[in-house]
Amino acid sequence: MEEDRILRLMPWFFAGIGALFAGIGLWMAKSEMRGRRWHEVEGRVIGHDSHWSSDSDGDRTLMHTATIEYRLAGVTKQMRDSLSTNRPRPVGSVMRVRYNPDDPDDVMVWAPLCNGCFIGIFAGLGLLFVAIGTVWILVAEV
């Protein structure tokens, strides 16, 4: 009896997890798209904030978050990259910084290819799970 209930709930769980992933992916895509109409300035990596990160197995990795300097309206500003990596970006390397013309304090590092690929995989797999779960639900009801 309990096995029947679990088997009936399984496709709903599958579709629900897929909807969650797709929703998060679409939200990330919306956040990324907002920068497409913003103005761009050149930034340079001036240093890193390094910290140890542990995974679920307890393995530790040294992660690096770039500190980026850029000039906007004659004023030099700094920002932290939103992405930490295990290989630091070289100091002095050029970064594309986009800012909201209506709120110049609203800035982001512009890397649409990297972020777009990740977002596409995240949302795409979520939608695939939703489709499989939906077909599974429809087939199980027949």
Q: What would you note in describing this structure?
A:
The protein has helices at residues 2-33, 112-141; strands spanning 39-54, 60-72, 75-85, 94-100, 103-109. By secondary structure, the protein is α+β, with helices and mostly antiparallel strands. The protein has two domains: 1-37 and 104-142; 39-100. β4 (94-100) and β5 form a beta hairpin. It starts with a helix and ends with a helix.
Report the order of strands and helices. HEEEEEH
Q: How would you write the strand order of the largest sheet?
A: 3-2-1-4-5
Low-confidence residue ranges: none
Alpha carbon gyration radius:
21 Å
Q: Could you give the distance between the termini?
A: 20 Å
Helix-strand blueprint:
Elements: H1 2-33, E1 39-54, E2 60-72, E3 75-85, E4 94-100, E5 103-109, H2 112-141
Antiparallel strand pairs: 1-2, 1-4, 2-3, 4-5
Helix pairs in contact: 1-2
Summarize this entry quickly.
The chain has about 140 residues and is of the alpha+beta class.
Short key terms for the protein model shown above:
single chain; 142 residues; alpha+beta; 2 domains; 5-stranded antiparallel β-sheet; 2 helices; 44% helix; elongated
